Amino acid sequence: MIDCTIQLLTPAVLREPECGRELLRAMLKHFPTHIPQFFGDTEPLRNRFRLDSVDTALGCWGGQFFILKQEKPKVLMQASFASSTSPRPRHSSITFFDFQLLDSSDLSTLAAFVKELAQTFHADYAMAHIFSQNELEDWLARRLETPTSWPAPPASQIVDRLRAKVSREGYAKVLWGVECLKLQTANLQRCLPNLYWLNVFGPPYVAMFGSKRLMEVPAESVETLAYGGTAIQLTNDLKDSKEGWGFFQAVRTKCRNHLDSNAFCDSALDRGHRYQTPIFSLRSGLQ
Amino acid sequence: MAAQNASIVWPAIFAGRAFQSSFNSAFNVLSNTTKLFTKLGNTIPDLYKFGNGVLELKSGAYIANTGNIVPELAAAEAEGAPYYLGVSPTSTVSAPLSAAVEATGGEVFVFDAATGTISSAEGGEVSVELLEFLALLGEE
Question: Which of A148, A169, A181 sits opposite B102 (nearest CB)?
């Protein structure tokens, strides 16, 4: 099994049940084995999902959250619906915290699935990433070398706590937290956390980077999507080995440098540093 | 049966109160008494200042988007305020809840009552905004 994650941010409000139907249709078209078992709008999920009564499940769609879960292969998805009246506008989001693939032959299907979702929901930003234990080990080693200051505990205590968390919750959940949790509007308005295995930059990012620069990024593949987004797949796959992780990192660094290093978050810079950021239109969604 | 349930629930309530009391002492803040009214229910978050932040402390083993967290997240979103969730070093927070908290511009953080320290649940340092929110509450 390969553990993956998907994140999609859209200016669309997404509250219409038709949006939920489109999401399920796309998922089951690309991954017919990923049939959810449970659904709900809060946790714990108590409602059994049945393919012959999708309308019942979509009755929960459009409130604050909509969550789907399956055990094997593991799927845990949450749609989060932005309030159109909040003083702090944000994107609506579709997050697959965990999306397991049987093997690497499913990676091209994963890329097609994410591109279709980005196209359907006119995503400002979408990504998919393949989790690797080597990536987590690399992150923990860097964390250990980064000094902390009060009120934080010493770095060694933080790393010990995260290792205990890996034992309790699995490495994929911890890696998702350190690498992907920040992919939310408030953080993207500050800087872009990183590049991932697959990145879809919607029109605001295309305007920021420029389509020529995006098309020339030295990645495995670059594709323009019909709605105006650009999909960049960094490597063919991401093997969970030192070599596989090293190769991915090298490609990622080249691509980041090509795009514009001032768009990506850098912990070495002052917190007040002004990065290059896109201009999101968050009140003019699809609905 | 009721007595059995009580023997399970009361230690958890006392542990929760002790956790909150340690946090309040460490950061020199007073518990909130303002009740928030939302479509999803009414709630009194542990710490609160209108428009600046909503903060809840939980010391349980597994914390998910349920109970009083549901209306608190709704209140934070309606006010455009960040939602902060403080948990113990051994708590597990569900991924849907972590993402929901982060989407408000807030964060899940770990409070170690034994040392009085806080850090981001994901291993970084907590945000300047959280420290400023705590300082603001400490001034009251």
Answer: A181
- How is residue A45 annotated by DSSP? P
Count Cβ atoms within 10 A of the Cβ of residue A16 and give its class: 0-12 exposed, 13-18 middle, 19 or more buried. middle
- The number of C-beta contacts closer than 8 angstroms across A and B is 110
Q: Which of A65, A186, A187 sits opposite B96 (nearest CB)?
A: A65
Apex B94 CA angle, A187 and B120, nearest 5: 45
β B83-87/B107-112 pair status: parallel
- Residue-wise pLDDT for A193-231, tens only, equals 999 999 999 999 999 999 999 999 999 999 999 999 999
Dihedral sign of CA atoms A146, A148, A152, A156 in order: positive
The pTM for the full model equals 0.94
C-alpha distance from residue B108 to each of A28, A83, B84 (Å): 33, 21, 6
Chain B residues within 8 A of A142 when measuring between CB atoms: none
Q: Mark yes or no for CB contact B65/A86 under 8 Å.
A: no
Regarding an ipTM greater than 0.85, the answer is yes
Helix (H) or strand (E) holding B87: strand B83-87
3-state secondary structure of A4: strand
> Could B96 and A153 be called an inter-chain contact, meaning their C-beta atoms sit closer than 8 Å?
no
Beta bridge partners of B109: B86, B120
3-state secondary structure A139-187: HHHHHHHCCCCCCCCCHHHHHHHHHHHHHHHCHHHHHHHHHCCCCCHHH
Q: Which of B92, B105, B131 sits opposite A168 (nearest CB)?
A: B92
Using an 8 Å CB-CB cutoff, list chain B residues near A152: 117-119, 125-126
